[in-house]
Amino acid sequence: MVSFGSDLLPANAAAVKILIAGGFGVGKTTLVGAVSEVPPLHTEEVMTEAGVGVDDTAGIEAKSHTTVALDFGRITLSDDLVLYLFGAPGQERFWSLWDDLAIGALGAIVLVDTRRLESSFGSIDFFERRGIPFVVAVNRFDSAVDYTVAEVRDALDLGDEVPTLLCDARARASGRDVLLSLIDHLMATAPVLTAPRS
User: What integer pLDDT is reported at residue 146 of this predicted model?
Assistant: First the structure.
């Protein structure tokens, strides 16, 4: 049972760090805010003229704020599992922060916007190169064409081992389903530990 609004953690809960990445304006801040059971920490700043010609805003021209360091939230999935969510900034000029944010992360979510699919490749490559398991969540924007999961998988050239699902980053239940999909993926890909022979 997912719990929201409590500052108290279960006494023996395992803490798992999850990184949420994706291109500029795909909805990472929205996803963290939607699922966090505590008031999320956001490092959003007003976009200024300094970003003109640096940040690609094609398709998201109405965007007025951007994450400059990270977003942080927490969600308790069960009495023995708490997720700490770290949303990474999407602009390429902030990618140098990703290495630090990824330290200790057991898994990741790559949030995708089909209106700007090319902005997803950097995130996918980042996690593939570091061997960090991830799922791809296609954020369904109202103005975007509806593509099937198979079409998105094909366009992103994803391997069969990468779970891919549709989501609405604004909806708590949808965000929770993405997190549960990642946890299932992590459990399925975790190495099996065997007892040493005596």
Answer: 87
